Description:
Bound molecules: iron/sulfur cluster
Strand order of the largest sheet: 12-13-14-16-15
Number of strands: 16
Order of helices and strands: EHHEHEEEHEHEHEHEHHEHEHEEEEE
Helix content: 25-40%
Amino acid sequence: SLLIGVGGCVAQKERDALTERFPYLDIVFGPNAVPDIVTLVRRAECGERPVVATPEDGPAPRSDQALRNGQARIQAWVSVMRGCDNYCSYCVVPYVRGPQRSKDPIEVAREVQKLAAEGVVEITLLGQNVNSYGQDLPEKTTFARLLESLNDIPGISRIRFTTSHPKDFSRDLIRAIRDLSRVCEHVHLPVQSGSTRILALMNRGYSAEQYVERVAALRDLVPGVGLTTDVIVGFPGETEEDFEQTRLLLERVQFDGAYIFKYSVRSGTAAARLDGRVTRPAIADRHKELLEFQKRISLARLKDMIGTTQSVLPEKADERRPGHVTGRTRGHRVASIPGDASLVGREITISVDRLDGWTLIGTPSHTRKDS
Ligand code: SF4
């Protein structure tokens, strides 16, 4: 039977309002209850209504089955920290998940070793703001050092991470991406707006110019790095001029991809008290315009990859292209190559022949057995 659940930070914060307003909800769970999701579903299946699980705190998230990228056993997520101290004015995370707490680097390494022993070859380190990792530990450390300590774990051929905060995106980290062989050349660096005025209202801690400078430093040291971002349109007070600055920033930076979000109020946040709400139709128009604008850029950048050599990690059979396997380049673009399941989990060097929709189609030029 169909179960309807709502999960995440807002679910945690708005638990009572949600169950009252939507009495047909079966499950409401907060971030700390994610590892218990199987039990919660079972309780709902046994007739409990609604199943509410919003513990204030929980055991440090493990890289266990519940957090693993379902079908692809070669990949796993590893939580390296919880909480956030940034208080971006639109976000509920600091209120719900509390202050930043980094996991001990030795514990992270142990988890990664365990995953490697289970056959995982690609890990993605997770945190609200991985760039400030380690600053809260009794023995301070940095995210760049954490990456360094994980780089030589046998069996792991790729290390990814998300999410980066531009204000903490350091030169050390850029050098780590350049120098550490397992760390993939892809950065998801949410800009949120191209208007410095709006960025200040968002309490992001950087100007549009500083953001562009950081990207230039990254591209300078890591040419060809994959760069993606998040943008919020319709933040309170966003004028047509502010919006135009965001459009100009996208044009200037030339991201490989961008998630464009419509601003929506999160009660209890500083932004919820700001004047100058943008109307829904205006937000919808800006969202549509920016999506289309970025789509053209993303496609042009993908086309630029035709003729290049890329390293691909096949993840599974390509359902749309029989006789092919699909995976991602180190820069996080989707690629498809001829081959069967025996290629899954082995990094392969390919030359990119053409594009099919948003997928790079390539021919293997060299197969490297993972160390
Ligand atoms: Fe929220 Fe991310 Fe800002 Fe932290 S850094 S407050 S999680 S948007």
